[in-house]
Amino acid sequence: MPEVTYREAVRDGIAQAMRADDRVFIMGEDIAEMGGSMGVTQGLLDEFGPDRVRNTPISEMAIVGAGIGAAMAGMRPIVEIMYEDFLTLSLEQIVNQAAKHRYMSGGQLTVPLTIRTQGGAGWSPGAQHAQQLEAWLVHVPGLKVAYPSTPEDVRGLLWTAIHDDNPVVLFEHRLLYPVKGEVPEQLEPIPFGRARVVREGTDVTVIAIGPLVHRTLEAAKQAEEDGISVEIVDPRTLQPLDEEMLVASVKKTNRAVVAHEAVTRMGFGAEVTAVLQHQAFDYLDAPIERVGAKFTPLPFAPVMEQYVVPHAEDVLAAIKRTVA
Amino acid sequence: MAFHWSATLTGGAYTPGTLAKVERETAVGEGTLRAFLHDMLLIRRFEERVEDRFRAGELPGFLHVAIGQEAIAVGVARAMEDDDIFASTHRAHGHTLARGSNPRRVMAELYGKVEGVSHGYGGSMHLYDIEHGNYGANAVIGGGLPAVTGAGLAFKMRNEPRVAVAFFGDGATNIGTFHESLNLAQLWRTKTVFVCENNHWAESTPGWQHSPVWDDMSKRALAFNMRSLKVDGQDVEAVYAAATEALEYARSGQGPVFLDIPTYRMHGHYIGDPQVYRSKEDREAAAFHDPIPRLRERLGLSDEEFEAFDEEAHRVVDDALEFAKNGTDPKPEDALKNVYA
Fold it and tell me: What is the ipTM of this complex?
């Protein structure tokens, strides 16, 4: 199997979908000649031309909203929101429009729209370019939310998102773009709502998303040295959520940690924790531990930024608390 | 027979920053005008009945009527082609009926019945009827404008002879979606027509309090170098002619058109609105500009002839009401359907 970066996997997923279906096109800020602020869409303009690879004005409401309208009119648009912080500008369109047209119309309409965005800490971009807001969108009925952590997952989930008849918000993490991984020769769509066991273990389950999957892998190696066997499960899609697999893993290990880069308070881990306590209460040997960012905006100074976001050591500490 | 109408044509397609008066001729026969009267009266009687039934406590939710603005709904809707689509606002009964949705199904929606155009999921502020091109009445001011731009983009990309139409009021011209949508539409020359129904009220706030260009919304279009047509919203014949022109231009792929249509909201923002913010003189002025007597006069109808139109409208509304009241309530658990495709 070829090894590609996460960035290349996203690009390949978009390109393959565009080759396969004329209804697929992409629009966003600086995605054409520049190839996107993260270089993800480089080369697409050359292959598909300006009609299908559209630079937009800085107009997040119109970018998402035009995607909604094109989707309702029979296209399968992909829109890119340059930084997920800017999702806030388009939230009206995502929450009130994309998520609800099907419902309010009594099932007459579909909105097959894919919204790609990226974010995360690590480059010290400060408080308006590094947030993790995935939990906001999981709260809205009518949306699907994916947060792939590997090249294979992002390509397969992106394909599914583009071909899904519902609006999908797909989160990419800035630090994942250079991460390499093997992908199948032929693109294999990954169904939504199927978690993946990243690593098998017996003592504690860590349910992690995005970059925390990788940080948890590091933590698991260290825990192994202390004789703790860690199982890692990546839900991959947050809505729909593979509750069955998460619960099954925790019933096996009897301990659970949830980990993401977003702030802990009201983060996605809060929902997972609620699911686990309800469905695996009698199996738990320790309180469920939560790992996330401290409750503060992302600061600029690198030392402060690194202090706020969770690292492998934080996951390791949480693991150890569960087995203490 | 041919009627004359005049409109003020502005925009980048001509000479930016200047106004050019154009005189046009259009062949709207008397039969067509009679059809317009039929539609306008139907909408008027429908909405009056909705007000009446709301006050009687039969209708849930928030309801807004467009009494006084019927000439815009009918003039634009009648100019549209079968495959054209539109998005509307919280004041959507007229647009929906004018595009041919069954009055029974529109009324049933207001009663929250399964037979309703949105099957009870939408209500007055969310009327949808895809078969008749209604891609959604929107309860967020300006909420539908980006989607209409995107639909117009899809028609352009696929080279289809279709147009997406957005209805909105003057209040919407101050929200971000309006500016982002007009900019994008003009930039990409989408097949879109923006219909600004300027009734000079944003809920209770008068135009002069909410916009520096409240009495000439075409200046908004000018800022985006977009072609615009200003037309009297109480003159259905003129609205029809302007809409025909705008739709033809957009359909050709040359770009969007902004219809600047001053009109009068004869009633309150919502049903039950005591309109404490509005003078008696202002209300009287609105009533004075009622488009229905004007069209009746245009057609030179006798009392008997007009009565015949009116009776027909009442009959259709009676039937719609009867149908709606006898409609089927959704099962409560149907609320869980249609969340995802």
Answer: 0.96
